Amino acid sequence: MIDRTHEARRTSWVASAQGHADFPLQNLPLGVFSTPRDRRPRPGVAIGDEVLDLSALALSGLLDTALADAAPLLTADTLNPLLAQPASVRLALRHALFDLLADDAPHRARVAEMLSAASHVTLHLPARIGDYTDFYAGIHHALNVGRQFRPDQPLLPNYKWVPIGYHGRASSIVVSGTPVVRPNGQRRAPGQDTAAPDAGPSRRLDYELELGIWMGPGSSLGTPVPIAQAEAHIAGLCLLNDWSARDLQAWEYQPLGPFLAKNFATSISPWIVTTEALAPFRMRQPARPEGDPAPLPYLWDADDQAHGAFDLELDVYLSTPAMRARGAAAHRLARGHASHLYWTVAQLLAHHTVNGCNLQAGDLLGTGTISTPTPEGLGSLLELSEGGRRPVDLGEGETRTFLEDGDEVIMRARARRDGFASIGLGEVRGIVQPAPSLHVPLS
Ligand code: CA
What pLDDT does 441 receive? Predict the structure, then answer.
């Protein structure tokens, strides 16, 4: 999987790509963008601080003849047609883009005309998301939250056998930068377990740090995907913020699980960082603690155990209105790592399809909140503030237990490995807006 497109010494003639934190020549993530001059959403690739128009490239005749059939995929208004193709098509596109953007590339002047400054484009959701599933694979998050509710039994007995998940809502998935309106709903104050609920704005609004997994080629209804073939259905990753209203959640979640506490908004980073770009940053799935059950055979694959995890550092930042007013940088709340997932993405996919449930190109899976076993990388305020009991110190006299209106949550991810160019997933950000009035009639 590692080839010439991963060589660290190679650079791009696009000057801003040199040492770019997220999008050097070795990344080439896929997205959908539009410009003020051409408002049509169309596929693009991020290179440094620029976006290359893939629809213009497809029509230019500069793509290799091997990719001639791919031209219609690159002029669509979503990436769904491209995602439906096997990995070999993405790989051929990656090689062609690399050759056009590398220092020794021909046709530079013509390709340069197809670049737009990233600061001047609008980024859209990269695909039409048919279905969205959120898992719960971050075991330290599950333990931390479980301890708050069930000190004697933080993990339920099924956790180490079954990748826990639920079907989320695709219609409210939004691209980074979209404001997030504080949800209204039924609330009960903590500790008032016998009081009647009231309805109003969530008082315990939170974020969840997750990875999003983009489905490539779909699977057939009634046909499980064997774990050894699961990777062939995964196109790439993004960052995902699963906004969560903890007070709504605590009241509504039994017996059927998350509903309105989660489906008011889910923010994702705009770029699909492909599994091809991430190839150098795969790592062994950490060994399970002694005494944990071995995965059932349909969830076990030796190759997946050897390479199935991602070596990705994950950061969460908070920017409050007061910080912005004084020109201060966002405050880092957490630095975590993607290796703290109890299940690999291949295991999640094999489990999702074991019953015959079909996945489609452009479906999105969330991993579940990723937290570290130690306090520096907790993936939610619920954990950082210990359920709202311990305010988090933001400096300059500011604290938070949960999010306030005007707060902006920013997540970033970086892959590093000696001998390779570091790449990132880009960022996902969202600013909290006040809840709308419920217009409750006066009694
Ligand atoms: Ca979640």
Answer: 76
**Distance (Å) from CA 56 to ligand 1 centroid:** 37
Number of neighbouring beta carbons within 10 Å of residue 109: 7
Query: Residue 33: beta bridge partners?
Result: 42, 123
413 CA from centroid of ligand 1 (Å): 17
Tell me, in angstroms, the distance from the centre of ligand 1 to residue 228's CA. Answer: 26
Give φ, ψ of 291 to 5 degrees: 95, -15
Give the domains, in start order, of the chain with CATH numbers.
4-124 (2.30.30.230), 132-433 (3.90.850.10)
Catalytic residues: 141
Q: What pLDDT score was predicted for residue 442?
A: 73
- Interatomic CA distance for residues 316 and 250, integer angstroms: 24
Taking a 5 Å cut-off on Cβ, the residues next to ion ligand 1 are 134, 208, 242
CA angle 101, 103, 108 (to 5 degrees): 55
Cβ-contact 17, 23 below 8 angstroms = yes
- What per-residue confidence (pLDDT) applies to 443? 67
Q: Which residues pair with 415 in a beta bridge?
A: 312, 423
pLDDT given at position 355: 98
Return the exposure string of 2-23: e unless at least 16 CB atoms fall within 10 Å of the residue's CB, then b: eeebbbeebbbbbeebeebebb
Sign of the four-CA dihedral 385, 390, 394, 400: positive
Q: Which amino acid is at 5?
A: T
Positions of the chain with pLDDT lower than 70, given as ranges = 443
Q: Write the single-letter amino acid at 27.
A: N
